[in-house]
Amino acid sequence: MTDNTTIINHNNCPGQEILNVLATKWVPSIFKVMHREPVRFSELLKALPGSNKQSLSVALHQMEKHGLIEKKIIKEKPLHIEYNISDTGTYLLDVFKTLSEISTINKQKEIAAI
Amino acid sequence: MTDNTTIINHNNCPGQEILNVLATKWVPSIFKVMHREPVRFSELLKALPGSNKQSLSVALHQMEKHGLIEKKIIKEKPLHIEYNISDTGTYLLDVFKTLSEISTINKQKEIAAI
DNA sequence: ACAATAAGTCAGAAAAATATGACCGACAAT
DNA sequence: ATTGTCGGTCATATTTTTCTGACTTATTGT
Lengths: 114, 114
Hints:
The structure is a homodimer of 114-residue chains.
Chain A: H1 14-22, H2 27-34, H3 41-47, H4 53-65, E1 69-74, E2 80-85, H5 87-113
Antiparallel strand pairs in A: 1-2
Chain B binds a DNA duplex (30 and 30 nucleotides) through residues 24-26, 40-42, 50-55, 57-58, 77-81.
């Protein structure tokens, strides 16, 4: 038997890593909340019902680690922390938009096929 | 207290659905194997060590459902099934490539920061 | 007729992701 | 001094995803 298949290991593919972050449960929602203006941790928690501290904390760390958001300590009156979207993050929002379009086109095809 | 946070529910966002497919464990690898030429189920299984029938089967169905790949029954001598990437799928490979670039740039920044 | 391969399905087990609730340190207001 | 808020962490529980191994149907080779 001729084996023309190649064994491939994509475990340390850099794109995969970022994809895993993007597909983490609350990440797309966090992005969308932050889209227009920076948010604080407690605001996110309120804005995303069903979420929890733990998951948001992990998600924010991952997003920061991958350069999708930036964490800023605001040294004003009440001294607080603000998260805001980075340029990379803004670009990724465009990717989301494209994915939505693809998905929508596909659904129209399904309907047309009936 | 003035509540300036809006409660947002992104549950039925169409982009999210396709994102979930993309981030399913073996999907990116399947894409890459199929990138150049169509593959058969048993070839995928061999090409992706650590994978299993069940997961690949589910992944292929999801990918087909979302129009990322196409399934073809080849009525030649040994009569078999072939999966190949669709135009949408090819486009998504480009998205992966971009994600990889973003990730790589980010890692370089990390190194530079040391 | 018999065994082998391809392309799966199914139920249950194991592993990974997510959620819950208690707790903590810093700061502010009463 | 006590209470409350903010921005978390930690250990544990629950839920979801993924894997394993047995089984199936159709086709092909001997």
